[in-house]
Amino acid sequence: DGGITQSPKYLFRKEGQNVTLSCEQNLNHDAMYWYRQDPGQGLRLIYYSQIVNDFQKGDIAEGYSVSREKKESFPLTVTSAQKNPTAFYLCASSIGGYTGELFFGEGSRLTVL
Amino acid sequence: KNEVEQSPQNLTAQEGEFITINCSYSVGISALHWLQQHPGGGIVSLFMLSSGKKKHGRLIATINIQEKHSSLHITASHPRDSAVYICAVGVQEADGLTFGKGTHLIIQP
């Protein structure tokens, strides 16, 4: 079945550590997105990519990094520079940018201890 | 930057009731999405609208471009419709989508 797979579902990190969240899609979509969700707030865009080897910062990119070496994969690294990383992270993809249907992964919940 | 307001924030209703969730935005848009988020966190796309009305099963979404307003209706609501419903709007790709805070819907049997 086609879809988006995020891993891990739950992740605990000590302060000062970098962690990488995986996002893989087999939908053959060009556009991929990373969003952060905090309680009581709307989703906020961290990074997006419309094509392999190219990505753009979103509204809250500071303390995060991404890569897009393959069409199927868009991993997100939460670095130690991210001051408040505890949140729910969602990866999404679409075939035609935001004017097309969006497909989301199940999310990754990161907790900093 | 677009501002997206959803109402109500929370809604509890009885099974079978007709449900309406509203979304208003401040800047003219190219696309509006309605999304459903289940308790486990996964999000499913319900509709993408740029004009008019769309229907899928018991769900109906409408948009009024002039009034900058969209509604999501659920007919014959069922407990399995209990979820958070999120509205998101986009103007141009470079700016990404702006998301509302969501409407938490509970349908009681």
Topology (elements, then pairings):
The complex is a heterodimer of chains A (113) and B (109).
Chain A: E1 4-7, E2 10-13, E3 19-25, E4 31-37, E5 44-51, E6 54-57, E7 64-66, E8 76-78, E9 87-94, E10 102-104, E11 108-112
Parallel strand pairs in A: 2-11
Antiparallel strand pairs in A: 1-3, 3-8, 4-5, 4-9, 5-6, 7-8, 9-10, 9-11
Chain B: E1 4-7, E2 10-14, E3 19-25, E4 31-37, E5 43-49, E6 53-56, E7 59-64, E8 69-74, E9 83-90, E10 97-99, E11 103-108
Structure report:
The complex is a heterodimer of chains A (113) and B (109). Chain A is built from no helices and eleven strands. In chain A, the strands form two sheets. In chain A, strands 2, 4, 5, 6, 9, 10 and 11 form a seven-stranded mixed beta sheet that branches. The N and C termini of chain A lie far apart (36 Å). Chain A is mainly β and 113 residues long. In chain A, β5 and β6 (54-57) form a beta hairpin. Chain B is an all-beta fold and 109 residues long. Helices cover 0% and strands 58% of the residues of chain B. Chain B has no helices and eleven strands. Chain B has strands at 4-7, 10-14, 19-25, 31-37, 43-49, 53-56, 59-64, 69-74, 83-90, 97-99, 103-108. In chain B, strands 2, 4, 5, 9, 10 and 11 form a six-stranded mixed beta sheet that branches. In chain B, a hairpin with a 4-residue loop joins β7 and β8 (69-74). The termini of chain B are far apart. In chain B, 32% of the residues are buried. The model of chain B has no long low-confidence stretch (mean pLDDT 93).
Quote the beta fraction of chain B.
Answer: over 45%
Low-confidence stretches of chain A: none
Helical/strand content category of chain B: mainly beta
Figure out the total of helices of chain B. Answer: 0
Instruction: List the helices and strands of chain B in order.
Output: EEEEEEEEEEE
**How much of the sequence of chain A is in beta strands?**
over 45%
Largest interface, and how many residues on either side? A-B, 29 and 25 residues
**Helical element count of chain A?**
0
Distance between the termini of chain B: 40 Å
Please give the largest β-sheet of chain B: 6 strands, mixed
